[in-house]
Amino acid sequence: MIVLGIETSCDETAAAVVDDARRIRSNIVLSQVAEHRPYGGVVPEIAARAHVEQIDGLIRQAVDTANLKFSDLDGVAATAGPGLIGGVMVGLVTGKAIAAAINKPLLAINHLEGHALSARLTDDLAFPYLLLLVSGGHCQLLLIEAFGRYRRLGTTIDDAVGEAFDKVAKMLDLGYPGGPAVQAAAERGNPDGIDLPRPMAGRQGCDFSFSGLKTAVRRLLDNNPGLPVEDVAAAFQTAVGDVMVDRAGNAIAMAQASYPGLTHLVIAGGVAANSHLRQCLDVLCRKRGLTLAAPPVDLCTDNGAMIAWAGVEHLAVGLSDPLDTPARARWPLDPDAKPMPFAGKKA
Ligand code: KG4
Ligand code: ZN
Question: What global pTM score does this model have?
């Protein structure tokens, strides 16, 4: 079974071909970082236009690289949400057109499900497992119980963690995108002696909050001009790591209450590239008898392979979607999860 995957929900235009033997036959990602850099963040209108300009050539390249013809495909998977709606529409409509032209099923994929299932592509992981999804748009802990059964244990009540990295990078004049720049600065810095809060740490449950931490960094900089940028970056990254360990620790306890034999915590999303975070979570997992599964960085960040793989999993159980399936800006993975009061500024 061979599936084409299309991803256009944020600022990466991506297409990939994956098969049911977990082989990634092609995986092409075009980043729009250069287009958005002058604005210090993703501009939805620019993103949608850039997807339109690139998507057809990119898909052709993905199919060619896989040494296939369109007629060799068994299905076409495209992200149908959540995300920036203009971009999602570009990818979904393109996927529908290809599916119609080759008369093969359309798989309308939830972007979060793509991240959630990617560890099954890279690590052949069995259900259930715990997922920490940390990106520019999301910060969630999910219990991945079975295909189609995803229980949200916690989420952010304000900003996503990647957003916090990007905003702190801006305050420190480290450029865009901020996460990698903060990490690089933090590696040269010393967090000792800089006191930043650990929002939500010690509380029940496993929700996150980052706006207070962001404000604390702002105040710290205002009150202490001349503080070395590297030390502030290190203090911020340490605070984020501590919060993640606290929240993930509670999530592990909640997950183990339902599944005493739980074996893995998976991290995905762009912030999963952060090596300090990986290190802290690895220590936590070892303490709790779990293994940390971290897909390679290029499969943690947005990509088409995870969408194609989710399509493979859908097809394998006989699921497909009609051609009038709408694009959705908001689409929680757990239908029972309550909407958070302030979350979802970026889907
Ligand atoms: O998953 P992603 O590529 O796109 C979405 O947001 O969906 O994640 C991008 C986010 C950005 O906020 C970026 O600053 C952050 O991931 N990021 C990092 C690192 N690399 C990327 N944050 C911290 N440390 C990193 N090494
Ligand atoms: Zn993503």
Answer: 0.93
